[in-house]
Write a structure and sequence with these properties.
39% of the residues lie in helices and 17% in strands. The protein is an alpha/beta fold. The protein has one domain: Glycosidases (TIM Barrel). Strand 8 (258-259) and strand 9 (268-269) form a beta hairpin. The structure holds beta-D-glucopyranose. Beta-D-glucopyranose binds next to loops. Beta-D-glucopyranose binds at residues 20, 23, 165-166, 169, 222, 281, 343, 381, 388, 397.
Length: 451
C-alpha cells in the first residue's frame, strides 16, 4: 500500500489571507472606483456599499474577522491603505483615518497576526483622478509623498510593505479594455501607466526605506502563465508577446533596473533600488491562440485547451492550473529574493471545488520550495467574501461566506481546511482524505513522494 508523507512547510512560514481597502472597508466614497460604481459600470449592477464593513470602528466587524482568522491559526493578514482616506484632498492629511488604521494594525499585532500592508490597490483619490490619475505628470511624486506619510504614521506597526498591487492589471483594465475607470482604450496610455507605476514603486520603496531601513518592501505582480494553444509559430509568437509585456517587462524594470515599456529596444535605466521580496498573485493559466479578432490582447485570443478544467464565468478563459504556481515561483527564484504568494484564490460560492484548489496549489507551492525557491508565506484571496470590482457581489472568493445585506458570516468548509493546514504547517493525507479525496494522487504525487 502507498503511504504518503505529510508535506511540511518551512518553520515560521506565514499563513494568511489577503484583502484590499475598497473591497472590504465599505463607504469608501472618495475614490474613482466608488464613482464608477455609482455611474452604473458594474456588470451585475451592485455597488460596494458597506463591503465587509471593516471601516466602522463602532461595529468592530474587522476586529471580529481578525479574531476569526487568529482562531483558525493564521499568522498574517494582508490589507491595503486607502489613499483617498489618508489624503482626502491634495495635501490635506486626515489624522482620523490614520487613527483607524492604527487601531486595525494594533489589533492584528495583539492577535499575533503579522500585518502586510499595500499602499495602492487599484483605487485613486478623486482629486488625483480629476487631474488625470496615473497620466498626471506629477503622479509619481504625489504617490511618493503619500508613501512617506503612511510610513511615518504607521511604520512602527508594519514591517512588510507592498507598494503597488498588480500594475499591469490596473493599467490594462482602466486604459486598454476600459472596463474600469476612466474607461479608456489606448495602448500608449496603458504602457505609460505601467512605466509610471514601475517608477512609483521605486520612489515609494526609497521613501519607505529612508524612514524605516529594516522594513521589507516589495511590488505585487499578477503573474499568469501564458502558454501557446498549439505548437505552431503564430500561437507561440502571440503567447510570447503576452508573456513579455504582461510579465517579463515589469520584472526587468523592478529587479534589473531596465525600463522598456512597451517595445522600445533601448532600455531606460531606472534608479537602483532595494526590493526585499517579490510579491506574486497567481490565479491560473491562459492559453493563447493567434487571432486577428483580438487586437486588445495583441492578437492572442484566450482559448480553453481541450480537456482543461476552467474557472466559471466571468473568467471561463482561465484554467485551474496548480502546476503554474510552481512555474511562477521558479521564474521569480531567478532573482534570489524571498517570495511571498501575496494572492491565490478561487471564486466558488458553493465551495465544491475550492478545497481541491487549495490542496493542489499548496502542493505545487511545496514543490517549488523543495526545489529551492525561497517562499516565505502564502495569502489566500480572500477571507470573507468581498466586493469584486466590476463583477460586484456576483463572484465569491471567501473562505467565509458573507451576506452583504445582513453582514452575516458563515465559514465555508475551506475555512476549516485552511485552518487545519495553517495550524499543522503541513498538508497531511488525513486532510486530503477528509476534504478532497479525489486529489490524493495529485497532491502527494506532485510532491514526488509516497511512490
Ligand atoms: C486582485 C484582487 C481581486 C482578485 C480576484 C486580484 O487580481 O488583486 O483585488 O479581487 O484578483 O479577482
Amino acid at each position: 500500500m502507498t503511504v504518503f508523507q505529510p508535506l511540511k512547510f518551512p518553520e515560521n512560514f506565514l499563513w494568511g489571507v489577503a484583502t484590499a481597502a475598497h473591497q472590504n472597508e465599505g463607504n469608501n466614497t472618495n475614490n474613482d472606483f466608488w464613482a464608477w460604481e455609482q455611474a452604473g459600470h458594474t456588470h451585475d449592477g451592485t455597488i460596494s456599499g458597506l463591503a465587509t464593513d471593516w471601516w466602522d470602528a463602532g461595529r468592530r466587524r474587522a476586529e471580529a474577522d481578525f479574531a476569526r482568522a487568529a482562531e483558525m491559526g493564521l499568522n498574517t493578514l494582508r490589507l491595503s491603505l486607502e489613499w483617498s482616506r489618508i489624503e482626502p484632498e491634495e495635501n490635506r492629511w486626515d489624522d482620523a483615518a490614520i487613527d483607524r488604521y492604527r487601531q486595525l494594525l494594533t489589533e492584528l499585532r495583539r492577535l499575533n497576526i503579522t500585518p502586510m500592508v499595500t499602499l495602492h490597490h487599484f483605487t485613486n483619490p478623486l482629486w488625483l483622478a480629476a487631474r488625470g490619475g496615473w497620466l498626471a505628470d506629477d503622479v509619481v511624486s504625489r504617490f511618493e509623498r503619500y508613501a512617506a506619510h503612511a510610513v511615518a504614521a504607521l511604520g512602527d506597526l508594519v514591517d512588510l510593505w507592498c507598494t503597488i498591487n498588480e500594475p499591469l492589471v490596473y493599467a490594462y483594465l482602466s486604459h486598454l479594455v476600459g472596463d474600469w475607470s476612466p474607461g479608456r482604450h489606448s495602448f500608449p496610455q496603458t504602457f505609460k501607466i505601467a512605466a509610471r507605476m514601475a517608477l512609483a514603486h521605486r520612489a515609494a520603496e526609497h521613501a519607505i526605506h529612508a524612514r524605516q531601513p529594516q522594513a521589507q518592501v516589495g511590488l505585487v505582480k499578477h503573474q499568469p502563465i501564458f502558454d501557446p494553444l498549439r505548437d505552431n509559430r503564430l500561437d507561440k509568437m502571440v503567447s510570447g508577446w503576452q508573456e513579455m509585456l504582461f510579465n517579463r517587462r515589469m520584472f526587468e524594470a523592478v529587479y534589473e533596473n531596465r525600463l522598456r515599456f512597451p517595445l522600445n529596444l533601448f532600455a531606460r535605466e531606472i534608479s537602483v533600488g532595494r526590493d526585499d521580496f517579490i510579491g506574486i498573485n497567481y490565479y491560473g493559466r491562459q492559453t493563447v491562440k493567434f487571432s486577428l479578432g483580438a487586437p486588445f490582447t495583441l492578437f492572442g485570443k484566450l482559448v480553453a485547451p481541450p480537456g482543461a478544467e476552467m474557472w466559471d464565468a466571468p473568467w471561463a478563459d482561465r484554467e485551474i492550473y496548480p502546476h503554474g504556481l510552481y512555474r511562477v515561483c521558479r521564474q521569480a527564484a531567478k532573482y534570489k529574493k524571498p517570495i511571498f504568494i501575496t494572492e491565490n484564490g478561487f471564486a466558488d460560492a458553493a465551495d465544491t471545488r475550492r478545497p481541491r484548489f487549495l490542496l493542489t496549489h499548496l502542493a505545487a507551492l511545496h514543490r517549488a520550495i523543495q526545489s529551492g525557491a525561497d517562499v516565505r508565506g502564502y495569502y489566500y484571496w480572500t477571507f470573507v467574501d468581498n466586493y469584486e470590482w466590476v463583477e460586484g457581489w456576483s463572484t465569491r472568493f471567501g473562505l467565509v461566506a458573507l451576506n452583504p445585506e445582513t453582514q452575516e458570516r458563515t465559514p465555508r468548509r475551506s475555512a476549516e481546511l485552511y485552518g487545519e493546514i495553517a495550524r499543522a504547517n503541513a498538508i497531511t493525507p488525513a486532510m486530503v482524505e477528509k476534504f478532497a479525496p479525489e486529489a490524493m494522487v495529485s497532491v502527494f504525487g506532485m510532491a514526488g513522494n509516497g511512490a
